[in-house]
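Help needed: design a sequence for this.
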């Protein structure tokens, strides 16, 4: 238990360090350990991450670091781990990370180390700057981590278990390639919102955050709406208008123009407001600058559908519709115990 507490304390110190990098700005604090070595360096890594991936705007990078600083407290970490017993022999766990949003693989990284294992990380080229630097900070605040964190760009070798995140196609490859190892293989998932017609303007303002944060690239980003027959989208579009400045991002604007042209040439019916299109479609994964919608006849049928198609869905945003729903505006604020794909990573790591 004492060893676990040392690891918890180390990650809480990392949370303190990250608290200097928030949406309110980057502000150096005086009481952060090893700040003289790492503060300026991490500012530079944020700059490199932004230059390397134009989806990683400063706003989204700082949103991610602020979220992690709030999660990495002793109170949050203890609550997350309170029901798990770590008595297994330390293993080498490989992680294949996605790169769709900043630090998207950090939860897996945290989970492996907090469980007492060593980690072998294969990063996405789209998100390669931040995590190695934060790993080095961890080694300074807790020297026991030295030798337990490796990064590789080559073929993964000498590992006991694997956590891999990718598309549905790469997942099939992962499942075959890692069939002899304990594994968590994650596939494509998207998030949905259930609208009833009783939403307030505040609900829609909040929903705009679920739709547009990270340009809709996250698995927790809302890419599809379920709406009752005859639904009027006026209030939805009014709420989305709070995010109108997103069209000033060149890469987003290019995607918007391209997808709009495709829809128009294909003569698809769609509605748009100058920076967002909505289109009736049964699919869950919508292109950038597009949200799909689907009509439902009654609540019970929709609840059955959502249950049957749960393997395609990461989050369900709603208001008093389902027990496991997420409130409007909260999809990008997961707790440590809100696991991707609903698979308890810590339980997996405690039993390998």
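Sure. Designed sequence:
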């Amino acid at each position: 238990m004492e060893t676990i507490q040392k690891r918890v304390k180390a990650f809480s110190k990392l949370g303190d360090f990250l608290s200097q990098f928030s949406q309110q700005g980057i502000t150096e604090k005086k009481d952060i350990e090893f700040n003289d070595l790492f503060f300026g360096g991490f500012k530079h890594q944020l700059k490199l991450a932004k230059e390397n991936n134009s989806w990683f705007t400063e706003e989204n990078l700082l949103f991610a670091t602020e979220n992690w600083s709030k999660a990495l407290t002793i109170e949050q970490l203890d609550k997350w781990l309170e029901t798990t017993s770590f008595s297994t022999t330390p293993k080498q766990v490989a992680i294949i990370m996605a790169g769709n949003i900043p630090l998207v693989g950090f939860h897996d990284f945290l989970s492996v180390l907090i469980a007492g294992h060593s980690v072998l990380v294969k990063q996405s080229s789209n998100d390669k700057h931040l995590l190695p630097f934060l790993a080095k900070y961890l080694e300074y605040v807790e020297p026991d981590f030295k030798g337990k964190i490796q990064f590789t760009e080559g073929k993964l070798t000498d590992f006991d278990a694997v956590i891999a995140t990718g598309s549905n196609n790469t997942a099939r490859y992962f499942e075959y390639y890692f069939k002899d190892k304990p594994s968590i293989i994650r596939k494509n998932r998207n998030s949905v919102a259930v609208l009833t017609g009783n939403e307030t303007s505040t609900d829609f303002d909040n929903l705009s955050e679920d739709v547009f944060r990270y340009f809709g690239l996250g698995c927790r980003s809302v890419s599809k709406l379920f709406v009752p027959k005859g639904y009027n989208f006026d209030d939805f579009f009014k709420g989305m208008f709070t995010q109108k400045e997103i069209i000033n991002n060149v890469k987003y604007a290019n995607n918007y123009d391209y997808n709009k042209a495709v829809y128009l040439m294909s003569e698809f019916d769609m509605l748009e407001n100058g920076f967002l299109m909505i289109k009736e479609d049964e699919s869950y994964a919508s292109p950038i600058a597009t949200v799909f919608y689907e009509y439902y006849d009654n609540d019970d049928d929709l609840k059955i559908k959502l249950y049957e198609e749960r393997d395609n869905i990461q989050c369900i945003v709603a208001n008093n519709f389902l027990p496991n729903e997420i409130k409007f505006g909260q999809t990008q604020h997961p707790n440590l115990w809100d696991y991707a794909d609903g698979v308890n990573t810590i339980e997996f790591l405690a039993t390998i």
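The first helix runs from residue 2 to 18.
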